[in-house]
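ASSEMBLY PREDICTION REQUEST
Request ID: AP-0331
Submitted by: J.K., bench scientist
Number of chains: two
Total residues: 226
Priority: normal
Notes: Please return the full assembly, not individual chains.
Input sequences:
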Amino acid sequence: NAGVTQTPKFRVLKTGQSMTLLCAQDMNHEYMYWYRQDPGMGLRLIHYSVGEGTTAKGEVPDGYNVSRLKKQNFLLGLESAAPSQTSVYFCASSYVGRAQETQYFGPGTRLLVL
Amino acid sequence: GDSVTQMEGPVTLSEEAFLTINCTYTATGYPSLFWYVQYPGEGLQLLLKATKADDKGSNKGFEATYRKETTSFHLEKGSVQVSDSAVYFCAFSQGGSEKLVFGKGMKLTVNP
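STATUS: Completed
Returned structure:
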């Protein structure tokens, strides 16, 4: 099993450009999450999904959109990138959304917006 | 609001030193508590967890006890190794919620 994979690993964008980050999991997990990690801030939840075809906003959703067309994939889109979106993005998944459930993380995507 | 406060570091220790990373949380009810670790260049992975008061989570020589009376979940290891160099995150999840609330993370460097 590959677990949680993320594409791409690193990307440089110019302000105003758009891109999509792809997350895939092969563990048949229902729940998937997108976080961003900034220095001194820990991880903050951007959006999450409780199942195929559903999405919900997290703590910092502005400037991002998501889609969950297939159970195994969770896409994060930036329609018009801004320097404030320079960050490391992590995808995670869990079998269900119970409080005691472990989340499994991907290796991250480092995004630089110039 | 819900939050996690943990030692931020960075901390540098010598091999075989004792490690304590303090973590306290502010939450209603009875959250589940976690320690995640991020090794250089990798994503986060679960180190240990505890789901009810007085539970002790343990893994790879690390331990943490869920103390509801002090709302704490301090991480300890008796003898650290160079391979323990990483960033450690304390987190909790509320019952009925899908979301993890993370602390800011603490970078640990262990020198030989």
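REVIEWER COMMENTS: The two ends of chain B are 41 Å apart (CA to CA).
SIGN-OFF: pending second reviewer
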